[in-house]
Specification:
The complex is a heterodimer of chains A (367) and B (286).
Chain A (H helix, E strand, L loop, with lengths): L3 E10 L2 E11 L4 E5 L6 H9 L6 E6 L2 E2 L10 E4 L11 H11 L4 H15 L14 H14 L4 E5 L7 H18 L2 E6 L2 H7 L2 E6 L2 E6 L1 H6 L4 H6 L6 E11 L2 E6 L6 E5 L10 E6 L4 E3 L5 E12 L4 E7 L8 E7 L9 E7 L5 E3 L5 E2 L1
Parallel strand pairs in A: 3-8, 3-9, 6-7, 7-8
Antiparallel strand pairs in A: 1-2, 1-4, 4-5, 9-10, 11-12, 11-14, 12-13, 14-20, 15-19, 16-17, 16-19, 17-18, 20-21
Helix pairs in contact in A: 2-3, 2-4, 3-4
Chain B lengths: L1 H32 L2 E2 L6 E2 L1 H8 L3 H33 L6 H13 L2 H11 L6 H8 L11 H29 L3 H9 L4 H29 L3 H6 L12 H11 L3 H25 L5
Antiparallel strand pairs in B: 1-2
The chains are: A alpha+beta (367), B mainly alpha (286).
The complex binds adenosine-5'-triphosphate and magnesium ion (MG).
């Protein structure tokens, strides 16, 4: 059992700075997911915690002990790799026991640990096989088993499911969740799939280009993102962003005019500093937060181009107006039933001030 | 379908014809010749003439002994050396990797005669650099080419020098195909670098090592240039005569083609047999 603390952690490769001072507190027993687009430095951060990359600046502590100069094997961590990294020439059983055998662990204890791991992951019948005789999902189980056998204080996962097909991914996701409950140990999990992050995490760390954009519980990030990047990254389909301008200000609200919707205006109550009149802003509305005409605070007309009917809901891909230097503004609108036809039909939907978010020109939230 | 096959064979015909005349026929013919007495005119069929002589010929057993001696000492030493070189070449700490890779591979490209001449000079009794080095550390000079043991050593050193780098490059390709994360997993499992080498690198490299060993066995079985040029036709006194040299002596000096063919078949048979034993010993347990 151990907490993991990152203090102003920096990583440079040669002259290139990849991680720009990360501060993260992972509590004991917590499931934390690092999420972000490809190349943002998630793996690098995880590998620094594991000790596979050295730390260019700052401090990493595991269980209260600074581990900057501690060997990977002595950090009390176990890692599951995206490519499984199983020993190809060893049977499943040998894969699980290799580390313990190499370190002179008593035979009986090794057998007990291997048996326990194989029971937890239900791979007992695969013990004599080689990795190449296993399916992707089975290999992933063995890789997780190898981590369990080490009885670590912290599990590290680097995109463990990204080589699996969609169905298996969902299944393994549930298993990893179950594993976390069963073992109750700290887990840090890296993925670029926001659905995985939302479903698995106690808390999510959103990374972007080596910076932490926000840390919070999945629904907090969904409801109350700190900035436009997080708002766009969390949630599927993505949040819609509509160009707008501030046209009025009063004590507790700003009035904005949507640029692409024929002068439609929305009064947006705000608690913080009001933006200046004339400032360009962006209004964010999730696909599921468009209401029937007249039900919200501001109606807009759009052209419905394509509709996707998923059964329970439909997504209407709509467009309106023209942004300067870009095509028409594209919107994704969720409709409850699949009645909506879309072949250039006009439709009117409504936005609620309380169900939309306002961002300034730099992408920061205006609250 | 049959028509298509026929067309394919018509396209292949020129190759098959040349292959048959210059490759297949000599192989078959030399097998037949090995059963003929070729010192008489005309040649006559005498199945035991050459093969009977072979099993009782001290020159054959001398050449066989020399060849096998070189084989059992030189091949393991060279493969071990090649593995060490490959691991060093693969080290991330190494600077100017391309230069070393070229340097290790270069001996293969050097002409056989030139390289033999250089080795004769290196090991020259009076002004060879090897003897100078021995002298400088207080050791006596060695007359490399007048005694059998040092002469054999020179041949083994020369062959090793020529082919170790070649094998190292093949092994390097094998090393580079081992995924890095397997080593990272082992590091997390607290497995030392040395143990990683013996428990991960060597087992995963085994197919390539076996491949190199088989290539080297075949090459050494046919060893000819070095004893011919460096130790002057298997000298001293046949002490370094190999099967390849004996074959040459019988076939091209004495023009005894039947006996030479029998020797050739023995060499090929031995190479195949030893390689098969090697493959069988190192097979994957199923
Ligand atoms: N050894 C290295 N040398 C130089 N740059 C590196 C090295 N490893 C990673 N980088 C760079 O660091 C950045 C972050 O890489 P990292 O692998 O952490 O990304 P990631 O968030 O895990 O992406 P992905 O989702 O694609 O796995 C990338 O821009 C990458 O090019
Ligand atoms: Mg990664």
């Amino acid at each position: 059992m151990a907490a993991v603390t990152l203090k102003n952690v920096v990583k440079r490769f040669g002259g290139f700075q990849i991680i720009h001072g990360a501060d993260i507190d992972v509590n004991d027993g917590e499931f934390v997911v690092f999420v972000g687009p490809s190349g943002c430095g998630k793996s690098t951060l995880l590998r620094m915690i594991a000790g596979l990359e050295d730390i260019s600046g700052g401090e990493i502590a595991i269980g209260g002990k600074v581990v900057n100069d501690v060997e990977p094997a002595d950090r009390g961590i176990a890692m599951v790799f995206q490519s499984y990294a199983l020993y190809p020439h060893m049977s499943v059983e040998q894969n699980l026991s290799f580390g313990l055998r190499m370190n002179g662990n008593p035979k009986a204890d090794t057998e007990r640990r291997v048996k326990r791991a194989s029971e937890i992951l239900r791979i007992a019948e695969l013990m004599k096989r080689r990795p190449r005789q296993l399916s992707g999902g089975q290999r992933q189980r063995v890789a997780i088993g190898r981590a369990i056998v080490r009885e670590p204080q912290v599990f590290l996962f680097d995109e463990p499911l990204s080589n699996l097909d969609a169905e298996l991914r969902v299944q393994m996701r549930v298993e990893i969740s179950r594993l976390h409950k069963e073992l109750g140990v700290t887990m840090i999990y890296v993925t670029h799939d926001q659905t995985e992050a939302m479903t698995l995490a106690d808390r999510i760390v959103v990374l972007n280009a080596g910076n932490i954009e926000q840390i919070g519980a999945p629904l907090d990030l969904y409801d109350d993102p700190a900035n436009r990047f997080v708002a766009g990254f969390v949630g599927s389909p993505k949040m819609n962003f509509m160009a707008a301008k501030v046209v009025g200000n009063d004590d507790d609200a700003a009035v904005i005019e949507l640029a692409n919707h024929g002068g439609a205006r929305l009064r947006k109550p705000l608690s913080g500093a009001r933006p200046a009149v004339g400032a360009d802003v962006v209004l964010g509305v999730r696909p599921e937060h468009f209401f029937e005409a007249g039900e919200g605070d501001c109606d807009i007309a759009v052209k419905a181009d394509v509709a996707e009917h998923l059964g329970s809901v439909s997504y209407v891909y709509a467009s309106a107006g023209t942004n300067v230097g870009a095509g028409p503004e594209e919107l994704i609108i969720e409709r409850e039933a699949s009645r909506q036809r879309a072949n250039g039909d006009h439709m009117v939907v409504s936005i609620k001030a309380g169900r939309s978010l306002l961002f300034d020109g730099t992408g920061a939230r205006i609250r | 379908m049959r028509y298509q096959n026929a067309t394919a064979y018509r396209f292949l015909a020129p190759y098959l014809l040349i292959f048959s005349i210059f490759w297949l026929w000599p192989i078959i013919n030399s097998f037949l010749i090995s059963f003929q007495a070729t010192r008489t005119v005309p040649w006559r069929f005498a199945p035991t003439f050459n093969w009977g002589r072979l099993i009782g010929d001290p020159a054959f057993f001398n050449a066989l002994k020399n060849t096998l001696l070189i084989l059992v000492i030189q091949v393991p030493v060279m493969i071990t050396l090649a593995i060490v070189m490959a691991v060093l070449l693969n080290s991330p700490l190494l600077k100017a990797r391309g230069l070393y890779r070229f340097a290790f591979f270069a001996p293969v490209v050097v002409g056989e005669v030139a390289y033999s001449a250089v080795f004769r000079l290196l090991f020259n009794l009076d002004y060879g650099i090897i003897n100078k080095l021995l002298n400088s550390v207080g050791l006596p000079r060695i007359d490399w080419f007048s005694n059998v043991t040092p002469a054999m050593a020179v041949i083994m050193i020369a062959v090793t020098w020529r082919w170790a780098g070649y094998n190292a490059i093949i092994l390097l390709a094998g090393l580079q195909s081992i995924p890095q994360d397997v080593y990272e997993a082992a590091t997390l499992d607290r497995v030392s670098k040395l143990k990683q080498f013996f428990y991960i690198t060597l087992p995963l490299l085994k197919p390539i090592i076996v491949f190199c060993a088989v290539l080297s066995i075949i090459g050494t079985m046919q060893l000819f240039t070095e004893p011919f040029l460096i130790t002057e036709r298997g000298g001293p006194g046949g002490g370094t005569e190999t099967l390849g040299l004996l074959l040459y002596r019988q076939g091209f000096r004495s023009l005894n083609f039947g006996y030479a063919s029998a020797i050739a078949y023995t060499m090929a048979g031995l190479a195949i047999a030893i390689s098969l034993v090697q493959l069988w010993l190192t097979r994957d347990p199923k």
